[in-house]
Amino acid sequence: MANRRNSGKASSGRDPGGFVALPWSVLDSRAYAALSHPARSLLLEIARQYVRDNNGRLLASRAYLATRGWTSADVIDRAKRELLDAGFIFETVKGHRPNKASWYAVTWYTLDRHAGYDHGAVESFRRGAYRENASLSPSRGTERASIGPSHGTERPPPVPSHGPMRANFDPSPVPSDGHHLGKV
User: Fold this and answer.
1) What would the pLDDT profile of 8-46 be if each residue is shown by its tens digit?
2) Residue 42's domain is classified under what CATH number?
3) What is the number of structural domains in the chain?
4) How far apart are the first and last CA of the chain?
5) Would the pTM count as exceeding 0.85?
C-alpha cells in the first residue's frame, strides 16, 4: 500500500492551493479585536501573498487590490493606516509616483532580507509589534456618551424668545403716505 503522505495524488483533507496561516496570537490579540472590518479584510489580502521568503515584499497597492475586488481608494488607505498604526504590517519600501508601489511585511513572521528596502527598514522592523500597540480605550475616548440633545432637555417655550409675534393687519391697500400710483 502506498504511503498517502508521500503520494502526490493523495488528498490532504483540504481544498488544493495555498493557504493563509494566521497565528492564534494574532487573532486573539486586543489589537486585532479593535480593528475595523475593512482593516481585517486588508490584513488577509496582504497575508495571502506571503510564501516562505517574501515577507517585506508584500503589496497593498490600489492596482493590486483592484484585481482582488477592492474599489475604494479611501477604504484601502484608511485600512492600511489602521494596520500600520496597530503594528500588524510594516512598510519596508515607501512607494512613489508614477509606478513604484510600497512594500510591506506582516509582523508575526520575521523579516526576510531583500535588496531594495528603504534605509533603516531592517533595523526598525519589530516582530510582534501588534502585541505592543493594543489599546484598551476606544479612539473617541472613554467619556460617557450624552443621551440627551445638545441643547438640553427642557421644553422649548411656546413663543419666540423675542416675544409673541403681532400681525400687522392694515386694511388699506394704499400706502399710508398716499396713493401707490402717485409716487414718482
Assistant:
1) 555 678 888 888 989 999 999 999 999 999 999 999 999
2) 1.10.10
3) 1
4) 117
5) no
